[in-house]
# Entry
Amino acid sequence: MDGSLEKLKNDISNELLHLKKKVFVVIDDVDRLDKDEVFEVLRLVRNTAKFCNIIFVVSMDEKYVIEQLGKKGILDGKLYLEKIFPLVVKLPKIDSFELLDSFKHDLRLMGYPVKDINSMFSKLNRQEYKVLEDAIVTFRKGKMFARQLAASMTFLNNSLGIHQYALKDLMFIELLKFIDDEKYQQIANSPTAILRIESLKSNWQKVYRYDGDCKSLSDKILVILFGSINEYWVKRGSIQACDSFLNYFCYGNIAEQVSRLEFSVMLKSSLNEFALDGLKKIMSSWCKSNKCRKNSNSIYDKFVSYDIFSCQDNNTIRAYFYALQYWVEYDEACPDLHFKILRYLLDKDVHYSVDEGYLRKLAYNRFKIWVSRGGKLAVRMAKILAQLYVPEFGNHLIIQNKEIKLFMEKNIEFLLNQKDWDALNVVQEDGNLLNMVLKSSLVNHGSVTVSYVNSLVIEYFSEQSRKSKNYQRLKVLLLDTLNDKTLTSDSSKLQTAHRIIYNVFGTVSQGMNDFKTYCDKCFVR
# Structure
């Protein structure tokens, strides 16, 4: 405090002269600093290196440091460094074999099982090894990538099982994420922008293919993953298979898609019917979210690809049926998909690992709940039930035709009692639910359609207290046209009237008879 800075420096230098050993100051990772920090460290080195017996050893990426000095206004960064460092040692490039060997060692310590890791590496070809060598250029990058890959491996092993994905595919898709996150996000969210979909010749399995060039390292990874495909067979769980593709993006749910991983975890997290609130919320958010509505076809794919037939766990099977129930309830858009999955599940010829009676009871109870909800669900259920009823061939389902017919009637009964309907609503094509449910309840018999609920509807509206006072409107809508003798059979007006009748009452003679009974009994003249 009572001397000059120059005197202080001289005092320190004199003290350092008496040291018997030199003092080495090692500074690493200068190339991790920003321009201001780089400049400050170099300034301190320049000023302090003038002391006796003090030697600085500074490691850096020279190109990066020169760039940062340029941002500080130092035009010749190389000359600036030469004035500070009288000796520059260029380290040789690390042997790629040592880098890969270190990466494998780190992965074995972090990931598991080791035998699968060893087996995967033993099957890599020279081209695949070369891509790994070009991506892992330092020990630090190798350790970072090993951590990233091990985290995904552990998650998939615990959630899906080691045999539900290909370890090599996981390693290279994670490598793409490691070196080119932009391309990875594009593959994850819009795969068809880069890949094309084709069907295999043997079983029409849908797979992804890449036909692009190999200019960049990320393109070479895409060639490894999607370039060479056996046109007859793709291993189950491969990233090439469209129905397994999403499993490989396990730490980021793809917009509008449901992965097999998501679906499997959801089912296994629901242990009994009294603890299904979580499952219900997930299905609801998949189907109803306005922000990111999950694609119905994606949900359908996961239902049909989940191996429910070999499942030994009653809780998982029950969760599967409950999830199906919530899907039917919440997704208004796709009754055809609902129908397909129900046919798939309820077929007698498909043998489950659990007792068929248990499954039948579970399915029967689900139908009872569905037809007691009413509202727009009644329209979906009417369509599904009408398609499940197949009288001309006999119904090969664990839910029989007589039971399906009962559910059709219950579906209508519940809807009729939900609000104060008017008999005119039956034939009014104004979007009312009663008309839509009746149209959806028609069962196809080849070229004709039959309704099994007409008598129930007529009986309901023929009660004195429920008879409609809108007979005149019925006349204007249908009866005047039907009674007009001047209209020919090809008249568009007459065809429209018949279409309205056939859409509700069916196209056989019984349908027209039911319409006449409806007109006579359900209206006040």
The mean pLDDT is 85. The beta strands are 23-27, 54-58, 196-199, 206-209, 443-445, 448-450.
